[in-house]
Amino acid sequence: MDILEFLEKNKQIIDNVMKKHLPEKFDSEYIEWAFGKPKYAFDTESLTKSLAEPCWDLLNRGGKRWRPGLLLLVTDILKGDRETAKEIAGMIELIHNGTLLVDDVEDLGKMRRGKPCIHILYGQDVAINAGNFLYFIPLLILIKNKERLGKDKLVKLYEIYAEEMINLSLGQAMDIWWHKGGKQEITEEEYFQMCSCKTGTLARMSTRMAAVISDRQDLEEKLARLAESIGIGFQIQDDVLSVTGEEFSKKKGFGDDITEGKRSLMVIYALRHASPEQKKRLLEILGMHTTNKELIQEAIHILKSAGAVEYAKKKAREIVRDAWENIDGDLPDCEPKDILRNFINFLIERKI
């Protein structure tokens, strides 16, 4: 089975879990099941319009579902309880989409998965609240599975959730400050730490939770490092595609990272290796937050001429390769492991 087949096979499983805990339409039956009998009365129409509809507008647009897919794969490799893993996988995807809702507001995004961003269609207030809801409603999955999990695993999963959600905000804080121009000279180590916290967080949460579910906490740290590296590699490839990928640009927007003033690995590299004139010009364009295509192309030309695009691709492969070599011998040879290896290559080499 190849990775695309694996992701497609498990997509409906993940979506069914999400719909169980966050339905496309709120009603009194769901309210009572999820939150208990209300003292007064919930306005289910308002909840549907301002929570369910914007959340599912985004969720129904697609997405690779690779983070929950990673959790399922690792659980399969470790021979853990797949029924429990299915429930937790839905939790990961809900959180991820919450980050997209909030991220698009913070970045003044225009397009997400080929359509206008949720804050453009529904308003910033609705998008922010819906995004926050997607951060917390996944905890309902843990609550509803507490008997299946048992006290020790439940507490550990809560701890992982709390630790990684804090990391998420730390990573976002650095990213926001940088693209606002708050700091010009950023080191690669700082960039990798930002990616580790921002993009690596949910991948790390996935593998750590898979280790707990599978009673293999002895591998939790190594799996976390692998997942973190996958997240960093994925982010680097995302940044590369933002300035080179035609199909990617159609779905997310052409040169959005230039418009945001994003300090990607390519920008960090170019600022070290470009000529003084090019460095000055690149910083000027990034500081404009422009949507002008000619200016965006000029910035991309500077990145390419400095060798930044090729460097970023090479670095992504190195980071993931080293992390895989660190854990390869600890994982039993099996079909899920082969899929995981191909899965990692897919995320780093993808064109969209």
CATH superfamily, please?
A: Farnesyl Diphosphate Synthase
Give the total of beta strands.
2
CATH C-level class: Mainly Alpha
Our count of domains comes out at 1
Helix and strand content put the structural class at mainly alpha
Shape: globular
* Largest sheet geometry: 2 strands, antiparallel
Question: What fraction, in percent, of the residue positions are helical?
Answer: over 70%
CATH architecture: Orthogonal Bundle
Mean pLDDT: 93
Description:
The chain is an all-alpha fold. The chain has one domain (3-349): Farnesyl Diphosphate Synthase (Orthogonal Bundle). It contains 20 helices and two strands. The chain has a two-stranded antiparallel sheet. Helix 4 (66-77) packs antiparallel against helix 5 and helix 5 runs antiparallel to helix 7 (124-136). The chain is globular, with a radius of gyration of 21 Å.
